[in-house]
Specification:
Layout (H helix, E strand, L loop, with lengths): L6 H16 L4 E5 L5 H7 L8 E6 L3 H8 L3 H7 L4 H13 L5 E7 L14 E8 L8 E6 L6 H15 L3
Parallel strand pairs: 1-2, 1-3
Antiparallel strand pairs: 3-4, 4-5
Length: 167
């Protein structure tokens, strides 16, 4: 076995490491539904220590609140799977790290947990860059095919997060 993870994931992670290393940019991750998969993909790559500052796996709402400083009111008002919470996760990851860019991921990987307004496959991403105006932090919701397996949704979400980390 050459790598623990699928080549599609590690190939993209290798680009993330190489391109961020080339510009001296450090990254931080705040992962919920991916459970550290993005961080794992990055650390499969030799030289990743030059790029990855740290990763937060904040699976529970309490972890998002305690580790990243996400407001309990935000979670209560909008739910953990929302642009507002992803935005706050990315902002908190930057605040609690030495990184230059943060990506946050929160979603419903299934097979349960979906609702009518947030069905299985709903994943929200946010990207924050140190020094940018907080109003410019981008958050985007993607709706992956709900018939995909939990593993497939998590892999698709990890791929989307890695794309956000490309300079």
């Amino acid at each position: 076995m050459k790598t623990l993870l699928p080549p599609t994931l590690t190939d993209l992670a290798a680009r993330v490491v190489a391109e961020n290393a080339a510009i001296g940019r450090r990254i931080v991750l705040a992962e919920s539904c991916t459970g550290g998969l993005v961080s794992a993909a990055i650390t499969e790559i030799p030289g990743s220590s030059d790029v990855l500052d740290r990763g937060f796996v904040t699976y529970s709402n309490d972890a998002k609140i305690e580790s990243l400083g996400v407001s309990a009111e935000l979670v209560d008002t909008f739910g953990a799977v929302s642009p507002a919470v992803a935005w706050a996760m990315a902002r908190g990851a930057l605040k609690h790290s030495d990184a230059d860019v943060a990506v946050a991921i929160t979603g419903v990987a299934g097979p349960g947990g979906g609702t009518e307004t947030k069905p299985v496959g709903t994943v929200v991403f946010a990207c924050a860059i140190r020094g940018q105006n907080e109003n410019d932090i981008s958050a985007e919701q993607k709706n992956f095919d709900p018939t995909l397996s939990r593993a497939e949704i998590r892999q698709e979400a990890a791929m989307a997060a890695l794309e956000l980390l490309l300079p």
